[in-house]
Design brief:
By secondary structure, the protein is an all-beta fold. The chain is 0% helix and 52% strand. The strands form three sheets. It has a four-stranded antiparallel sheet, with no helix packed on it. It has a four-stranded antiparallel sheet with strand order 5-10-7-8, with no helix packed on it.
Length: 100
């Protein structure tokens, strides 16, 4: 059993002349989803979110969508490595995870 930690952001961080691929603190929402060998979904992503930071406590496979199911063919997330993803604003997306 492991946890998927999700931080949701409205904006990217800014530097002089552009943006950087990190969320502008504070996040608009934070979630934690516990997953096992069965696909488990997070709650719906906040309607204002357009950028998420995902980090898992164990190797996992994840999938994004309105009603996603993570499978052995889904995207691999290595334990302890932060990954960043853009998501459509107002999409109602969730993130599904399973043990890798």
């Amino acid at each position: 059993m492991a946890d998927l930690h999700i931080q949701e952001y409205v904006e990217l961080g800014r530097v002089s002349g552009g943006s950087v691929p990190v969320g502008m603190e504070p996040p608009v929402a934070i979630q934690k989803t516990t997953y096992t060998i069965t696909s488990v979904q997070s709650g719906a992503i906040n309607a204002k979110t357009n950028f998420v930071r995902v980090i898992a406590t164990g190797d996992s496979k994840i999938a994004f969508g309105v009603d996603p199911t993570a499978t052995a063919n889904s995207m691999l997330i290595k334990a302890g490595v932060a990954e960043y993803f853009g998501v459509p604003v107002g999409s109602g997306y969730k993130i599904a995870a399973i043990d890798a």
